[in-house]
Each structure stands twice: as C-alpha cells, then as structure tokens.
Structure to design on (285 residues):
C-alpha cells in the first residue's frame, strides 16, 4: 500500500453517508489498486456469488485492473461496464499532481446494460459453474437505474476525492505515525488497548505520546481508539449478520452492556436500532 495517512473514522462516515443516500457501494483504493476502505465492507451477494466461479472471478479482477489502468492513464473519472454488464465509476484522487488513490462506486445495472434482462444474461451464466437459481433471484432484486444519474454520481465521487485531499483526511505520508498507529489499533482491535501498550509499541514516554497523538488526531489517543472501535462495530453491524455480543467481543469490549451504553452515547441509538436502520439495504442485494 502507498504510504498514506488517512482518518479512518472521518472517511468511514463519508462513505457510510454516501451509501445511505445512494444505496451504492463505495470504496477507496490506493495507487496499487488495493481496496482499503469501503461501505458496505463486503461485495454484493450477486457479485460474491459470481466470483465463486474461478473463471468469472478472474474476469472480475481483469475488469477492475483495466478500469483502474484507464483511469490512471487518462487521469480523470471513467464510467464503464464490467463483463457482467454492471456499471462502475472510478475517480482518481490527485494530490500535488500525483494520483494517490481512487474512489470507486458500483456495481449496478443501468438502462443501457446488455444484461439488464435475465434472459440475456442466462446463456452466459450457463457456461460457468455458478448457482443459477440464486443469481436469478438476486438479479430480480436489482433496481434498473437510468443513465441520467451517471453524471451526478461522477461529480459526487470527484467532490469526495477533492474533499479528502483538500482537508487532509487522505494524504501522502510525511510522518507515518498516524498510519502506523491506526494500523496497529485495527490489527489489535479485539484486544483491550491502553496507553501503556501503545507507548511500548512505539517507544514513547507517556507524556510525549499524549502530546504527539493529540496533535495528530485533535482528541486524546484513547478517545481515538474508542472511536475506531465503534466505527468498526458500525461497519460490522451494517454489513454482516454477526450477533451483536460477538461484535462487541471482536472490538475488545467483552462487557456487552458497556458496549451498548457507549454506542448509544456516541451514535444516539442502540446497536440493535442501528442495525435495523442500515442492514436492510446493505444486504438486500
């Protein structure tokens, strides 16, 4: 991954809001075309089912690579259809004349898609080792979108990329402590992280560590750790069916009551209410 600094909490809020408004998946990629943030965190059930076939999975990866390569060469937003006729949009994030990452939106059927009708797609799928019945059911759930919305989606992605760059929420790393800290916290998200652990890992005296991290995040380091844990919980609540008590354990909060109380304090709703409001659309396709 390119040496990037990014605000996990703030960017996830932006991605979540975009997904909530549009019902489209949105993801960030580094300049090696590797996804590092997304909402929802998993692919649609339709795409996931397709990718269970080795041949189709290879074609999906090839389409992704071709799309990113074209976006890189043209240095502008591109709109294209993958081999399954689904529309995708990729917009470059440019800082100091260098592409440091990409915003990607998709995948959905637009009115000009060859495979918007199941009868056109079925002969293609019959040649592969896929679950036809499941794909048929999922295909029928897709809403067909007019191509008229594509320019608006393009502008929205471009605004997101510009905003991330201008505000410094995503930037090339000049002092990679923030990236290393977030990476360490996320890798150890299931553990009870404390200041002593972080100071030992990053070789800081406690007083200096408090000062440095407050300059990085604008809040205390433990509040930042708390926010990351809650953001991970939100992603899991909105994109998986994992029981809430297990999600609490996965982010290092074995006390379910404390997790619920903290979540409600920060999000103004309980984890159960949050899931009810978001998971419907995130797993409907």
């Amino acid at each position: 991954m390119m040496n990037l600094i990014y605000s996990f909490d703030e960017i996830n809020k932006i991605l979540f809001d975009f997904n909530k408004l549009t019902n489209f998946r949105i993801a960030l990629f580094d300049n090696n075309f590797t996804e590092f943030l997304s909402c929802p965190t998993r692919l649609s059930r339709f795409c996931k089912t397709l990718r269970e076939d080795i041949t189709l999975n290879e074609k999906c990866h090839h389409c992704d690579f071709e799309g990113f390569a074209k976006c890189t060469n043209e240095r502008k937003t591109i709109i294209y259809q993958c081999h399954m006729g689904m529309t995708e949009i990729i917009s470059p994030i440019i800082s100091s004349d260098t592409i440091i990452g990409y915003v990607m939106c998709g995948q959905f059927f637009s009115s000009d898609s060859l495979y918007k009708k199941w009868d056109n797609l079925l002969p293609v799928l019959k040649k592969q080792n896929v679950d036809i019945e499941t794909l048929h059911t999922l295909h029928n759930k897709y809403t067909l979108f007019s191509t008229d919305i594509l320019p608006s989606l393009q502008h929205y992605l471009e605004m997101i990329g510009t905003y991330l760059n201008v505000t410094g929420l995503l930037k090339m790393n000049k002092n990679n402590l923030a990236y290393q800290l977030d990476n360490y916290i996320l890798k150890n998200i299931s553990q009870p992280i404390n200041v002593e652990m972080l100071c030992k890992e990053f070789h800081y005296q406690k007083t200096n560590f408090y000062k440095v991290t407050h300059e990085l995040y604008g809040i205390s380091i433990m509040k930042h750790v708390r926010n990351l844990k809650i953001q991970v919980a939100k992603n899991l609540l909105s994109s998986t069916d994992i029981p809430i008590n297990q999600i609490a354990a996965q982010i290092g909060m074995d006390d379910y009551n404390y997790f619920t109380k903290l979540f409600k304090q920060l999000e103004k709703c309980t984890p159960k209410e949050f899931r009810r409001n978001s998971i419907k659309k995130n797993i409907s396709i």
